[in-house]
Structure formats: structure tokens, C-alpha cells
User: Fold this.
Amino acid sequence: MTDQLDRREAVLDALFAVLNRLPGVDLTDRNRATPIPEGTRVALVLMDGAEDADEGRPGGRVVVITARPSVWLYVAATQAAVSDRVAHWRRLVVSAVRGERVEAAAEFRFALTFPDTLMEM
Assistant:
């Protein structure tokens, strides 16, 4: 089981490293439980996610563990521009992950907030 946990952590570390290398991101974090600071224009948060174990047939030796990390994207934008900004950043993240061949699939969750004062993007 330790080998599986080590491999899981290695995959999550590789995915986090890819997110850290994306230019134009103000904040990259992992499993963040606190709010994104005011003034942050783009933030990516890698959440480790849940795991499912499929032991296959009774008495079988193979156990398949599926991890479901997710990347949360926070984008500050006007309501008119938010759709384009989210699509832009989603494309960048997906391309970066595929380009690095990280052995993990990440689902994407989007948090949209509209602060009172916001610069035009």
C-alpha cells in the first residue's frame, strides 16, 4: 500500500509542478482551505480529491485505486469577460498537463466571484 501512496503523491507533485510553471498565475496552492486573497487575478488550487478502490474479484490480488484530483480555477474578471477568461485558462491548464504527460486526469471546478472594485481585464 505504501508504494501506491508514494506513486499517488508523485503524480500529485508532478501535477502541482506543472501548475506552478504556468505564467500569469498569481497564486498556485494545494488543498487550500482559506479564501483567495483580494486582488488575486488568477489562482489555481490543486485539490487531492477522493480515491476509489476496486478490489476486482474476491480473493484477487489486483487492487485498482483511482484518484480524482481536481484543479480549481479562480479568475477575476468582469461578468462580460469571465467566460472567455475561464475558457482561456482551462485551455492553458489542460494543454500544460497533457504536454507534460502527467499520469493523472484532473477535473475542473470553477469559482466565479465579482468583487465590488475590479479592473477591466
